[in-house]
UniProtKB/TrEMBL annotation:
Residues 1-27 are annotated as: Disordered. This is Alpha-soluble NSF attachment protein-like. Keywords: ER-Golgi transport, Membrane, Protein transport, Transport. One of its GO terms (molecular function) is soluble NSF attachment protein activity. It is found in: Membrane. Required for vesicular transport between the endoplasmic reticulum and the Golgi apparatus. The keyword Protein transport applies. It is a peripheral membrane protein. The lineage of its organism: Eukaryota, Metazoa, Chordata, Craniata, Vertebrata. Its main location: membrane. SUPFAM superfamilies: TPR-like. Residues 1-22 have a biased composition (Basic and acidic residues). It holds the Pfam family SNAP.
Length: 288
């Protein structure tokens, strides 16, 4: 039962704390290692009891002891575990833990892993803490690390241009960062198929800000990557641009339905397409 697990977890956590209580003599590394293991076990028991804050705190204690043992990798792993636990109870504390893990990973030169956790922080700012500027900053830091490591084959950078946040801040000069990953995908035989997806999302970013910008962006992407012009995504964009120009909501809706019947729209695309549709209906929101 959750209550029993919670009690057992508390006993184990308290036993771990006693194991490393400062006494008259220096603590041996074996005692600290035992305490690390006990804190980790206690944290996992707290997770099973859905006591997320206690789990996060226990993982943080394990991380602190790992650092005493100079086990940087284990400390960073524990901090990530703490961050994942805190996501369910205290998003700001999750950001703090993941930020500390990133510091360790960058110190170790593990920039690809650091980038992955910058994306996690960005997602927390995007969905939980609703701090758009900070979310953008973390997405961009992730993209910088991936580019620096030339990690084009990693799955995570493909998430970066999907970020809808630039659209919420159209005054930001950062909207054009969306096609950067599309451009780099064009250079990779493995990722060419995904370039059209990046350009599609980038064009929708522009569309939410300004229709003329979107039209010019589509033309530019076709010149950069001719295969994009033959894609269903590009054909949809052109239909949407025409419908928007004619202020024809029905044509817009039909085009989206036709596309969705073959390629299911994810939540991000659905949100963006609805946002654009509202602007046709004269319900344009203040996106700033």
């Amino acid at each position: 039962a959750p209550g029993t697990r919670r009690d057992e977890a508390r006993e184990l956590r308290d036993a771990a704390a006693r194991r490393v209580e400062p006494g008259g003599r220096p603590l041996g590394s074996s005692r600290i290692e035992e305490a690390c293991d006990m804190y980790a076990r206690a944290a996992n028991m707290f997770k099973m009891a859905k006591n997320w804050s206690a789990a996060g705190n226990a993982f943080c204690q394990a991380a602190r002891l790992h650092l005493q043992l100079q086990s940087k990798h284990d400390a960073a792993t524990s901090l990530v575990d703490a961050g994942n636990a805190f996501k369910k109870a205290d998003p700001q504390e999750a950001v703090n833990c993941l930020g500390r893990a990133i510091e360790i990973y960058t110190d170790m030169g593990r920039f690809t892993i650091a980038a992955k956790h910058h994306i996690s922080i960005a997602e927390i700012y995007e969905t939980e803490l609703v701090d758009i500027e900070k979310a953008i900053a973390h997405y961009e830091q992730a993209a910088d690390y991936y580019r620096g490591e030339e990690s084009n084959s990693a799955p995570c950078p493909l998430r970066v241009p999907s970020c809808p946040l630039q659209v919420l801040c159209p005054s930001s000069p950062r909207v054009p960062s969306c096609p950067l990953v599309g451009t780099s995908a064009m250079d990779s035989p493995l990722l060419k198929y995904s370039a059209k997806e990046h350009f599609f999302r980038a064009a929708l970013c522009h569309f939410c800000v300004d229709m003329l910008n979107a039209k010019l962006a589509v033309q530019r992407y076709e010149e950069m990557f001719p295969a994009f012009g033959d894609s269903r995504e590009c054909k949809l964009l052109k239909k949407l641009l025409d419908a928007h120009e004619e202020q024809n909501v029905d044509a817009y809706t039909d085009a989206v339905k036709e596309f969705d019947s073959i390629s299911r729209l994810d939540q991000w695309l659905t949100t963006m397409l609805l946002r654009i549709k509202k602007s046709i209906q004269g319900e344009e929101e203040d996106l700033r």
